[in-house]
Amino acid sequence: MPTLWVDADACPRVARDIIVRAAERTSTAAWFVANHAVPLPPSRWVKGLAVSHGFDAADNEIVERLQPGDLLITSDLPLALEAIEKGAAVMTTRGEMLDKGNIKARVQMRDFMETMRSSGEHTGGPKGYSDGDRREFANALDRWLAKNP
């Protein structure tokens, strides 16, 4: 049975609630890793792990614990790349699967946009988390869990 790993530092509350319900419904272990305590309901299947307040401390902890076949839920592209290289599946909180075929281009675009921002270019931020994003994520997570019991 795979484990769900959640990069909880930037996980929207509504996505966190979806993950908790899915873990309970499917009896799947879900770990929420962050550099602070994440409010979670008491559960046999859902656990929180607060790590030290260092740069990428939560990311490093996730990568260390990930096993091939696990699912990482994150929008952090460098973390996603490390997880994919380790054999894990990766899904964003908008329900998009990241894999060997699309992650490197996404990381390159992220790096390019970061360079643009550091040179003073206003590039805008990510769009807000919509009801459509919530539905897409819930459906994608359900599909993944059904295929990976």
Can you give keywords for this protein?
single chain; 149 residues; alpha/beta; Rossmann fold; six-stranded mixed β-sheet; UPF0178 protein QC820_06285; UPF0178
Describe this structure in words.
- With 149 residues, the chain is of the alpha/beta class.
- It contains five helices and six strands, in the order βαββαβαββαα.
- α3 links the parallel β4 and β5.
- The longest helix is centred in the C-terminal third of the chain and has 17 residues, at 131-147.
- It is globular.
Summed up, the domain count is 1
Compressed to H and E, one letter per element, the order equals EHEEHEHEEHH
Sheet with the most strands, sense and barrel status:
6 strands, mixed
Structural Rg = 15 Å
What's the total number of strands? 6
CATH topology: Rossmann fold
Family: Belongs to the UPF0178 family.
Pfam families: DUF188
Protein name: UPF0178 protein QC820_06285
